[in-house]
Amino acid sequence: MTPEELLELARRRCEAAEVFVVESDETPVLFEANRLKALNTRQTTGIALRVIKDGRIGFASTTAMNEAAELLNMALDVAPFGAEARFEMPTQNGLTSVDLYDPATEALPTEDMIELGQSMIDAVRHHTPELQCEGSVRKATQTVRVLNSSGNDASYSRTTFSLSLEGTLVRGTDMLFVGDSDASCQPITDASRIVETTVRQLELAKDFAQPTSGQLPVIFSPRGAAGAIVGPLTIAFSGRTVWQGASPVGNRLGQETYDRRFSFWDDPTVPWRLGSRPIDGEGVPSRCLPLVENGVVANFLYDLQTAGLAAAKSTGSGGRALASPPTISSSCLVFSGGDASLDDMVAEVKNGLLVEQLMGAGQGNVLGGDFAGNVLLGYRIENGKVTGRVKDTMVAGNVHEALKEVAAFGNELRWVGGSLHVPPIYFARLSVSSKG
């Protein structure tokens, strides 16, 4: 049964229906213990059906395309127990133009991927031969199509390419974790940035520094900032959290809430980024949406259902996984930068921390903006210089309070995970506790 036939069948028995189809072709090259472990290609196709029957939402999905005819009965069976539908299916509005597909990614030979991954590992181990490395080089092509009973029928294709390296150095009872990653819709043929970042981490971590405690200056690298502050911010700007009355900024729309130098926005139109998309998972055209402008809360993220509940409009923020109905999801979160270099920030700190990576930062009252995590990789700063790696140290704070007055935003922004564009951020005072 074709998607069109499934939609027509559902249209006859329901008030509204939507068919979501995704096809993907992925080639992961995996490395373990410093050498190639696995190479394979996976092809998957899936189809999902969302219906509105007697005012309620039913949903079903499958990756067995020969069972597509059963989806309607499955969706109708669960509809009486589903949520009350508070939206109408979007009509045909066209696609936003976004560069996501590069045939060079699809055509890159697997031999080149193997060579790239192995050369990355060899280069890092040339610096530290005892380092045990795991890594991956992945390419994929995905096609997404959304069609519904209101006449909307939109589709797009994207390619993705990613590199990752994780190194573990064991010396006695001490374990050091280093590494980096990169991702794009275009092929990445040069791993030198990942190598340079990892080698820099190894150099800074050569010596141990006596940990310290108290209310101290903390500088987050882009990767550290992504791990500490992005999660609580995304939750706070979710329209569902706002509608439920649980967001700390839900009643601050149009009000100055953060440092005036701070802006960030959700932008699915950034070319060649993994989080970008011409339409969201419900077929709503994408657009750049400012969330904070010069410290002022500007917008919240909504999918169709939550927008209906909140008497708002969808912002094209319906994220999608095949096995579940749409939910609110950010695309590419882009942060504003500043004027300071990371070295400038470090030079200003007499006694504090530089954090590369936190572990378990989602502890505490995340809805309220709290974060608390163990420093998986971080360094002590003394008199304007990094003096060594810290252990058994935790950093905690509240994102919304910390962003009210920021010591500095860095000018060296980085894409983290392919969908977060984040600068180094220097907070003058966060809670640091240590066993030392």
How would you sum up this structure, described in words?
With 436 residues, the chain is an alpha+beta fold. It folds into two domains: 199 residues, 2-Layer Sandwich (PmbA/TldD fold), CATH 3.30.2290.10; 230 residues, no CATH class. 21% of the residues lie in helices and 39% in strands. The chain is built from ten helices and 22 strands. The strands form four sheets. Strands 1, 2, 3, 4, 5, 6 and 7 form a seven-stranded antiparallel β-sheet that branches. It has a six-stranded mixed β-sheet with strand order 11-10-9-14-21-20, with helices on one face. α4 packs parallel to α5. The longest helix has 18 residues. It is globular and about 70 Å long. The N and C termini lie far apart (65 Å). The model has no long low-confidence stretch (mean pLDDT 95).
Element layout with pairings:
Elements: H1 3-13, E1 16-32, E2 35-39, E3 42-53, E4 56-62, H2 71-78, H3 103-107, H4 110-127, E5 132-148, E6 153-171, E7 174-184, H5 192-204, E8 214-220, H6 222-236, H7 239-243, E9 264-266, E10 289-293, E11 296-297, H8 304-309, E12 318-321, E13 324-328, E14 333-335, H9 342-348, E15 351-359, E16 370-382, E17 385-389, E18 393-398, H10 399-402, E19 408-409, E20 414-416, E21 420-422, E22 425-434
Parallel strand pairs: 8-15, 14-21
Antiparallel strand pairs: 1-2, 1-3, 1-5, 3-4, 5-6, 6-7, 8-22, 9-10, 9-14, 10-11, 12-13, 15-16, 16-17, 16-18, 18-22, 19-22, 20-21
Helix pairs in contact: 4-5
